[in-house]
Design goal:
single chain, mainly beta, 3 helices, elongated
Length: 569
């Protein structure tokens, strides 16, 4: 039986919460169950949270299922869903859509449209994770979706989706690039296969400013030898505007491409033809016609592969992938922040004694970076998905498992070759699919937490955890660091929060004694019960606001009693 399994974790904070200054905290979290969660694709959403996708074997029916997770800005789960049937259903890309929802593409062999191996599976989700439409499309062989993007017409209105991948259902070579334009409701607008006598595959596609598309992948039909990194520039109808292969005598592959701020493009992948040894991260900056502006390899003596690149607000780039040359053991995630000219401004590894790989990198609205992948060193068991978010300048060196490598950077000398891919229309079958709901559960582990000075569950700088009151809001510390007081109330404006004011005895201490049993119990009730809720904090505030007047009354009563005792005795 099919299913949509809703995995609801407890939400600690409101989804989409960001700091009062617009920035977000640095953190690392893992998500998973007792078996395996693999891959990991992520992008920031309009509410400053994140949407990510991977595959799970811990939950669902049969083997791997799609796993889609919506979190807030600090990684707390808002909702997560699995989508799968009896066999393997594995995502390749997820993006937000202009209607507030999301679209994810991948591959499935649970339910094929034409009786073949893998088919492309596309699922359109609402903002809450409900299914708007889902379709499989494919032929008699294996058909895989690796990348998807929403597209817009010349007036800026949503005009459907473009996905890229590869197929061996066509009559060309071994494997061809497959690109398909979908309507806004998921029907096929057009589809084309691109290839030669060898193998071609595409792993990344984006819409360009002229309404066309830019895609990258690999080819063995053209180039210098082995496999070469292939870039296709297409018009809005899928016709080839230009095509180029870049590489050396060994294997070189493109896995991610993005439009650059100057109107050109930046592509990332890995190269065995150039670099320090094994395979290296490979980044090529191209102009609008595909000519190389600069090209560089980054790596060590073993194998290093870049899997994702994203342009940054400052004109630079963030690149993520995996490394066997650096890190803690096995393979580690490797993250590079590059300047606009390809020089390295920040480099970090993340991992433990097992294997880690980063599959997706993106930028956040405040200029920071977010990276997703999988880890079998940390988490609930087997391998888990991980998400890490870090500041553009500082990185995550304060976190366990994060290292600072020393990658070798070298200019490469790949020669571009004009390709000559054959373009053929494809008539792949399409079918709607249905999924039945089924609830499940999972675990979240915080590898590197945000800072929470007063231990109230609200990270420093987030709404409800603002700096000191009383005119001291610029650079002061938390006015009550040992007691939860997210409102930072300070009635007497002395820089000491009402929740931990100790400059004078309070009414309870006056009545029951400073160290009396009743006083101690009231303190515990204040610090561990009342301070945890908004209503309770209001009671605390009212108590301390009234305390001075009550103390005066108690003092008057005590003075009256003393005078009375003198008269009587």
């Amino acid at each position: 039986m099919g299913k949509i399994a809703a995995l609801f974790f407890s939400v600690l904070l409101t989804c989409g919460t960001v700091r009062a200054d617009g920035k977000q905290q640095n953190w690392i979290r893992t998500y998973g169950g007792g078996s395996d969660e693999i891959l990991g694709y992520i992008v920031q959403t309009n509410d400053s949270g994140f949407i990510s996708a991977g595959a799970t074997d811990s939950f669902g029916t049969g083997e791997y299922d799609f796993l889609v997770i919506k979190t807030d800005g600090i990684g707390t789960v808002c909702w997560q869903m699995t989508f799968g049937l009896s066999s393997n259903d594995i995502p390749g890309s997820i993006v937000p859509t202009s209607d507030g929802g999301y679209i994810v593409v991948g591959r499935t062999n649970s339910l094929t449209a034409d009786g073949g191996g893998y088919d492309v599976l596309t699922i359109k989700l609402s903002s809450a994770g409900g299914v708007s439409f889902n379709r499989t499309v494919g032929g008699s062989g294996d058909d895989v979706g690796t990348s998807i993007a929403e597209v817009f017409d010349e007036n800026g209105k949503p005009d459907g989706y473009i996905f890229a991948g590869y197929t061996d259902s066509t009559v060309g070579g071994d494997t061809d690039i497959w690109i398909m334009k979908l309507t806004p409701v998921g029907f096929i607008s057009w589809q084309q296969a691109y290839g030669g006598s060898g193998e071609e595959s595409a792993y990344s596609i984006e819409q360009t400013a002229d309404g066309g598309y830019i895609a990258t992948g690999a080819t063995t039909s053209f180039g210098a030898g082995g496999s070469d990194l292939l870039v296709l520039k297409l018009d809005a109808e899928g016709k080839v505007y230009w095509q180029k292969a870049y590489g050396g005598t060994k294997d070189d592959r493109g896995l991610s491409i993005k439009p650059a701020q100057d109107g050109g493009y930046v592509a990332a992948g890995h190269t065995s033809s150039f670099g320090s040894g094994g395979s290296d991260f490979w980044v090529l900056k191209l102009d609008a016609e595909g000519n190389v502006s600069w090209q560089k390899a980054y790596g060590g003596t073993k194998d290093d592969r870049a899997l994702s690149i994203e342009t940054m607000q400052d004109g630079g780039y963030v690149v993520a992938g995996e490394t066997s040359s650096f890190g803690s053991g096995g393979s580690d995630a490797l993250i590079l922040k590059l300047n606009a000219d390809g020089t390295v401004s920040l480099q970090q590894t993340f991992g433990g004694s097992g294997d880690e790989c980063a599959y997706s990198a993106g930028q956040t609205s405040d200029g920071g970076c977010v990276v997703a992948g999988d880890t079998d060193s940390l988490g609930a068991g087997g391998s888990d998905l991980f998400v890490l978010r870090f500041d553009n300048e500082e990185g995550l060196l304060e976190c366990s498992g994060v290292g600072s490598p020393a990658v070798a950077v070298s200019d490469t000398a790949a020669i571009s070759h004009d390709g000559a891919v054959d373009v053929a229309e494809v008539d792949a079958a399409s079918a709607a699919t249905r999924w039945n709901p089924d609830n499940s559960s999972g675990e979240i582990f915080t590898v590197c937490p945000w800072k929470d000075s007063d231990d109230d569950g609200i990270p420093d700088g987030m709404p409800g955890d603002t700096p000191c009151a009383g005119g001291k809001t610029d650079t002061c510390a938390d006015n009550c660091p040992d007691v939860a007081n997210p409102d930072q109330e300070d009635s007497d404006e002395d820089g000491i929060g009402d929740a931990c004011e100790t400059t004078s005895l309070c009414p309870a201490e006056r009545i029951f004694g400073e160290h009396g049993t009743a006083t101690v119990r009231l303190r515990i009730f204040r610090d561990h019960v009342l301070s945890k809720t908004e209503a309770g904090r209001g009671i605390i505030q009212s108590y301390y606001s009234c305390a001075p007047a009550v103390m005066k009354v108690l003092e008057c009563i005590e003075g009256f009693n003393k005078q009375l005792r003198r008269i009587i005795y």
